[in-house]
Amino acid sequence: MTGPHAAVAAVRGAVRTALADLVPGTRVLVAVSGGADSMALASATAFVAGRVGLQHSAVIVDHQLQAESTVIARQVAARLDPLRFDPVVVRTVVVGAHGGPEGAARTARYEAIEATADEVEAEVVLLGHTLDDQAESVLLGLSRGSGARSISGMSASRGRFLRPMLAIRRDTTRVACDVESLTYWDDPHNDDESFTRVRVRQRVMPVIESELGPGIAESLARTAALVHDDDDALQAWADEVRTKAELVGTDGLALDIDVLVSAPPAVRRRVIRTAALERGVPGGDLRASHVSDVDALVGAWKGQGEVHLPGGIRAWRSCGRLLIARPSQ
After folding, report:
1. 281 Cβ partners below 8 Å, 6+ apart?
2. Do 278 and 317 meet the contact criterion of CB atoms below 8 Å apart?
3. pLDDT for 134-163, tens place per residue?
4. The architecture CATH gives domain 6-212
5. Residues with Cβ < 8 Å from 14, sequence gap 6 or more?
6. What does the pLDDT average to over 273-290?
7. What is d(CA 312, CA 88) in angstroms, rounded to the nearest whole number?
8. What ranges do the domains of the chain cover?
9. What is the pLDDT of residues 2-12, one digit of tens each?
10. What is the number of other CB atoms lying within 10 angstroms of the CB of residue 213?
11. How many whole angstroms separate alpha carbon 273 and alpha carbon 267?
């Protein structure tokens, strides 16, 4: 008996593994853009859900960044009809300017997905990121120089969000769609080199593979997986230090210098980074140099003044405390 094509089997196997712990009747929400990655994911999810008794829904986010975006969103929704998704939600969002075009679109997208997941009472949300996306994320993280967290890539599991295809190449999803006669579309933004990720995909990765040989994407993704576990352990340590350092009555604004000084620099910088993000510093703009400058207020104090952080946030030292806040606070 002939089984499914290898590409189809690979995507189905990844989804089956990701959903293995769910009990029958659980609702799964798939984020579908209409590209090959998300369409292959949607098809595999429908196949697996139908065999293990899961309910499957889909959300399509219309970013309104292209003239025909509403028409395209409706077309994608129609392509899901044969896969028996219920409901299929098309959600229109307004993309702001904070965090740059890529960051603002990502923020709007995830807010829409979260809201839809709440509405349909989905226990898990599946995202269609692939091994290639992971490799690109590692390179982008390296360019920011923001430490292990930035090169640990995307998590396979974070809260209710699951990324089943982080070990699957982008080309495999295209083959899976072609074999199953699934129509998909190529977002013009994927060829727009004004986006940093597109430049990494179209310019940087080909040069690296040409100079260093094939298998670079797999190596970068493997690096992300290895770093991720170490990073989680260090972050847990940093969370403990953060709890000890928080001063009562300051709403987490002030951190005890003595507690911070007693922690290893790597752990202390994580505490600072987490505190900065919580106070409103945009994650995509926070660089290692910013964290180092704030850390100098703790470990290399010479009477220096406040440190200006992205997003209008400032950090300064006063009376044995490290404070991170907006000037008005």
Report:
1. 290, 309, 310, 311, 313
2. no
3. 999 998 888 876 567 778 889 999 999 999
4. 3-Layer(aba) Sandwich (3.40)
5. 44, 164, 165, 167, 168
6. 86
7. 40
8. 6-212, 246-325
9. 789 999 999 99
10. 9
11. 10
pTM of the model: 0.80
Q: Where are the alpha helices (DSSP H) in the chain?
A: 6-18, 36-52, 69-79, 100-120, 131-144, 148-151, 170-179, 196-199, 205-212, 216-245, 257-262, 265-278, 288-299
Residues 298 and 317 sit within 8 Å (Cβ to Cβ): yes
Residue located via tokens 């889909």: 58
What is the per-residue pLDDT across 103-133, written as a single tens digit (0 to 9) for each? 788 889 999 999 999 999 999 999 999 999 9
Give CA–CA dist 27/9, Å, rounded. 22
55, containing H or E segment = strand 55-62
* pLDDT tens-digit series, residues 223-257: 888 888 888 899 899 999 999 998 865 555 799 99
Residue 61 exposed, middle or buried by CB count within 10 Å (0-12, 13-18, 19+) = buried
Judge whether residue 1 has pLDDT over 70: no
Fold of 246-325: 3.30.465
CA atoms within a 13 Å half-sphere pointing along the CA-CB vector of 89: 23
Tokens 């290399």, residue located: 300
Which residue matches tokens 């959600």?
91
pLDDT at 229: 85
Helix axes 216-245 and 205-212, enclosed angle (nearest 10): 120
Gap between the Cα atoms of 279 and 310, Å rounded: 11
At 99, the pLDDT band (50, 70, 90 cuts) reads: low
The tokens for 37 are 């990655």
**Hey, how many other C-beta atoms are within 10 angstroms of the C-beta on 48?**
23
